[in-house]
Design goal:
Layout: H1 2-18, H2 47-57, H3 76-88, H4 98-110, H5 113-124, E1 130-133, E2 149-153, E3 156-163, E4 174-180, E5 191-197, E6 203-208, E7 217-228, H6 239-259, H7 269-279, H8 292-320, H9 329-351, H10 365-380, H11 387-398
Parallel strand pairs: 1-4
Antiparallel strand pairs: 2-3, 3-7, 4-5, 6-7
This protein binds flavin-adenine dinucleotide (FAD).
């Protein structure tokens, strides 16, 4: 404990001396906000770049990753202290994204030494942005039916096919993709996990526009794309196990986003709901809200969120003892995304007509972000595997129920 408190003092001093003032208090609450890094990154405000570089130099963008690959080498307890101190000094994460949350941990578990040395430091420093090439036009929930063809020609593969719903494909530098290397094997047994440089000739990306007005998704096509054999993660035809492990990391990432006991600006989520109700005239400052039904719903939401945050914390504690995410990540993913949908529905109701703003005068930025986040929340229970698919996994692999 004494060591941990000494570490806390060091962190406090270092953050006070090194975090640019311009990034203090920044809140990233909207879809795709925050610094995702990569070659096409733009930094707003520009000091975000200095903040990223300072944190990355200490490995604190990936605090618990091994220092030989650029990570911070911190223990889970030290990483928790770092998170607490960042929140206390109102500092935003210097880097977020699929590199840190999805492919990085998968590389650390399944990568060869050469693959770790090639890819992990670039993720830590935010130099390379990654996207996920799993879904295809005819393969979503039944992911193992994927058809992207991958044929070996000596020291390289040739890839042909189409991926869809590739989030931020147009802004990414590399893609981790599932491809079919053995069409005659049982469907799960003919899949390979491949790392593909998106600047390779034959890769093309087309953004798809959504109801939220943004285009965070893409269709990604591969036409005779040559990929070196050493870019296979795991074994050839053995990609399904790697793919499932990555989905565990992805589902935990999604659940963590909604399981944090505090919202993006550091406020307790429950108090945000009550404050929102007051802002919209449903109660005076310091008084109980006038509508008993709304009071009940807000209290229920807050209790569910607190219970969920504590459950996530318990699972993090188990992870300290070396427990890797397994099928139980489906429980967190399911609960977190459904809870977030309920929270945003309630927020839109509390905001009344202002909760349905799209653009133009008369709406505050928070109102417009709320509408878009509400629409975006519908997708959270689809991405990373739908709620129905999570229920199937929980029934079969957590509860052991028959098919
Ligand atoms: C916001 C967002 C971001 C995404 N980002 C990415 C990305 O970066 N990369 C990527 O590869 N993919 C991404 N996806 C795709 C996502 O993984 C798929 O949409 C998802 O797996 C569902 O597949 P589908 O859309 O083909 O729906 P389908 O599989 O066609 O499902 C349609 C409906 O049928 C239900 N259903 C299907 N099978 C069963 C079953 N066995 N039992 C019960 N119900 C079933 C589903 O629950 C759903 O309601 C993203 C999706 C969203 C919404």
């Amino acid at each position: 404990m004494a060591d941990l408190e000494a570490f806390r003092s060091d962190v406090q001093r270092w953050l006070a001396a090194n975090a640019p003032d311009a990034v203090r208090g920044l809140v990233f609450a909207g879809e795709g906000d925050g610094n995702w890094g990569g070659r096409k990154a733009s930094y707003d405000p520009p000091e975000m770049k200095r903040w990223l570089e300072a944190m990355a130099a200490r490995g604190w963008t990936a605090p618990t990753w091994p220092s030989e690959y650029g990570g911070g080498g911190l223990s889970p307890d030290e990483a928790r202290v770092l998170r607490q101190e960042l929140a206390a000094q109102k500092l935003p994460p210097p880097l977020i994204g699929f590199g840190l949350e999805m492919i990085g941990p998968t590389l650390l578990r399944y990568g060869t030494e050469a693959q770790k040395r090639q890819h992990v430091p670039g993720i830590v420093r935010g130099e390379i942005r990654w996207c996920q090439g799993y879904s295809e036009p005819d393969s979503g929930s039944d992911l193992a039916s994927l058809a992207t063809r991958c044929e070996r020609r000596g020291d390289h593969f040739v890839v042909n096919g189409t991926k869809v719903w590739t989030s931020y494909g147009d802004l990414s530098d590399w893609i981790f993709a599932l491809v079919r290397t053995n069409p005659s094997a049982k469907k799960q047994d003919g899949i390979t996990f491949l790392l593909i440089d998106m600047t390779s000739p034959g890769v093309s990306v087309r953004p798809i526009k959504l109801i939220s007005g943004k285009s965070p998704f893409c269709e990604t096509r591969f036409e005779d794309v040559r990929v070196p054999v050493e870019n296979v993660l795991g074994a050839i035809d053995g990609g399904w196990g790697v793919a499932k492990a990555l989905l565990g990391f992805e589902r935990n990432m999604i659940a963590d986003t909604f399981g944090a006991s505090r919202g993006p600006s550091g406020e307790r989520r429950g108090s945000r709901l009550a404050n929102l109700a007051r802002q919209h005239g449903l109660g005076g400052e310091g008084e109980p809200l006038s509508d008993a039904v709304l009071r009940d719903e807000i209290a229920r939401n807050e209790m569910d969120e607190r219970a969920f945050a504590l459950t996530i914390q318990r699972s993090r504690d188990a992870a300290k003892a070396g427990h890797q995410p397994g099928p139980e990540s489906s429980l967190f993913k399911l609960y977190g995304t459904e809870l977030n949908k309920r929270r945003l529905e309630l927020m839109v109701r509390l905001a009344g007509p202002e909760g349905l703003g799209w653009e133009g005068p008369g709406y505050r930025d928070e109102d417009l972000t709320l509408t878009r986040n509400w629409l975006r929340s519908r997708g959270n229970s689809i991405e990373g595997g739908t709620s129905e698919v999570q229920l199937n996994i929980i029934a079969k692999r957590v509860l052991g129920l028959p098919d």
